[in-house]
Amino acid sequence: MTPPGTAPAAPRPVAPRWRSDRSAAARLRRSAAVVSTPGHPDGVAGVLDWIAERARSGGFGVDRIPFDAMGEWGFDPATGDLVHRTGRFFAVRGLRVCSGTGPADVRHQPVIDQPEVGVLGILAQEIDGVLHLLMQAKMEPGNPDPVQLSPTVQATRSNLSRAHGGRTVRYLEYFLDPGEGRVLADVLQSEHGDWFLRKSNRNMIVEVPAGHPVPEHPDFRWMSLGALGRLLRLDGVVNMDARSVLACAPAHPGAPDALHTDTDLRSWFVGERSLTPLRADPVPLAGLPGWHRGADRIHREDGLGFEVVAVGVRAGSREVARWSQPLLRPVGERVAAFLTRRFGGVPHLLVRARPEGGLPGGVELGPTVQGAPGDPDPFEGRSPFLDAVLSAHGDAVLYRAVHTEEGGRFLDSHGVYTVVRDDTAPADPPPGHRWATPAQLGELLRHGHYVNVQARTLLSCVVTGAVRL
């Protein structure tokens, strides 16, 4: 209340400001051009030593177990769905996917149903004038090597609410209430549409002011985008969630020119999404056509695709030290590849409007080639560009590395991620495909559910400088 006889304070002036943060892209690109790892005098080699040390000190162990040994998990007697006793975390259900009007257009599969929006957040801060990212050395039970680089925060809603009864998630407060922090990216993105039912995560990058004290912990280290680019050239070091968030960084390189305007590209995509006859409905897991349930796995009768298994986990550095859970285990190695070609000197990537039964919108932009070569895509069959990817060698291969998928839900799931230069690729590609620049895809990544998780992995390599187009 204003004291008697005192004039009320004048209202604070309110003025508009720039609608976009014009400095963020330049600072992120500078970070991508610098290989900096504070606390690791040996640079990238020091980061690898640190990851190995965290793996040795964590007391990690993962063992395959039969379903009836999971304790907290069991099969629902009415539906056969694999569920947690609390009804939390996630469930494995059946899914019926219909992509047409005939019997051949219907297929069935198990699917992970996790109707929660998780938080994937990376904390950023300028150190010695260069933007650095706080990365976590995190164990996931499905990783071939248990510890990989993950976002600062990687947590489901069940983790955030401590449904597991374990410790709180470190650094979470920076993402739930940024306060003085500066949000550089914040967007909902899908997970694997072949294996999740309409699952999305909040992908965030939040910058805290330079000099702001951030608590230290031995599982977390700062590194520049350029250092992450070096690490992305290595097999199995940077996890899927970190790759997804990095792809959303607003710093994708590119000229203002493109074969197609941004509006034309979006219009083409909206047409592909709206005209694709795709319907996906949950069904009971029990009696799922074409699938067999045994004592320790649920698998396709032809042995292809993937299977559902159970594991017991020991992890001293996680919020909970011991637990058991189901995991989805793909059969065989998968491929995700972009063809790239320059038009008028401008690099373009060949994207495919890819239907996936579990995607929130049914269709998202994926790489040119995606899937298991020995198990043709149920919607497209064999990709017309698969041979060009598999036969590429020498200077035509701009990037190739083996990356794992989400180790919290998938066991030993990995794929060969590749970028191939092909100057003979058609300028007018087959239906369902379109040329786009990295900058155009970066613009779409400011919005949710345009670019799928496999394409985001490859785009994280572009934004960090791991691949030069």
Automatic annotation (TrEMBL):
Pfam families: Hexose_dehydrat (PF03559). InterPro entries: EvaA-like (IPR005212), EvaA-like_sf (IPR038153). Residues 46-248, 263-462 form the dTDP-4-dehydro-6-deoxy-alpha-D-glucopyranose 2,3-dehydratase domain. This is NDP-hexose 2,3-dehydratase family protein. It comes from Nocardiopsis changdeensis.
